Predict the structure.
Amino acid sequence: QVQLVESGGGLVEAGGSLRLSCAASGQTISNYGMGWFRQTPGKEREFVAVISWSGRTTYYEDSVKGRFSISRDNAKNTAYLQMNSLKPEDTAVYYCAASTYYSSSDYRKYHYWGQGTQVTVSS
C-alpha cells in the first residue's frame, strides 16, 4: 500500500509559478511511475505529466509543454511538479498518482492516488 499526499497548491496570478509536491509513504516509490493529473468540475480527469521509475523518461500534455516540469527524488519518496507561466485555464484540482506501469498517461493504469490540491490562477 502506498499513501500519497499532495501539497503546494494555492492562488497565483497569471504568469506566476507554483511547485506541487507529492509525498509518498508506506513503501518506496522507486518501482512506480509517478503521474500528475488535474480535474475541473464537469470535466474528465486530464493527464498532465508523468515520470518513469528511474526519472529518465518524462511526458507532458501538449498544453503544458515548456511550462511545467515533472521530477522525482526517490531517496525522499517524493515527486514534484514545477508549474511556470501559469494561465487561468490551468485552474484545477491537481492529483498525483503511482503506477506499476513504466510511464503511462492513462489514469486507469494508476493504482494509488492522493487527495488532490487546489490550484487557482487569476487573470
The chain is about 0% helix and 50% strand. Residues 33 and 52 are 5 Å apart (CA to CA).
